[in-house]
Specification:
Elements: H1 3-21, E1 28-39, E2 45-50, E3 60-66, E4 80-87, E5 91-98
Length: 105
């Protein structure tokens, strides 16, 4: 067998075994605030223009999975919201609530 091929196979096997032995990261919840841009028709995802989430990411517009359709009950695109984002196997919004409209000064 070709020595380069042997090394490559060994590296691939090592990487696979290391990947299999690492423990999954624990879920962590983050509070966030933003504005709903879109909600998927099946209510499985929502695109949120969110502020920076300290310790996680800068502010941006991003599509998130929804834990269940009830998360967006009574919420429409354009609504200002606050919520909880869970990090485990990606980013999932587990709760969402409208924020009161600010009064004009």
């Amino acid at each position: 067998m070709n020595p380069l091929r042997t090394r490559l196979c060994g590296f691939v096997l090592f990487a696979f075994l290391v990947g299999c032995t690492t423990e999954p990261r624990a879920a962590r919840d983050y509070d966030f605030a933003g504005k709903v841009v879109t909600i998927a028709a099946d209510k499985s995802t929502a695109t949120i223009d969110h502020e920076a989430i300290p310790g996680l990411m800068k502010g941006m517009t991003m599509k998130f999975r929804l834990a269940n359709p009830e998360v967006v009950h009574d919420i429409q695109p354009g609504d200002a919201v606050t919520g909880k984002l869970r990090t485990q196997d990606g980013f999932t919004i587990v709760s969402l609530a409208k924020t009161p409209a600010e009064k004009s000064k």
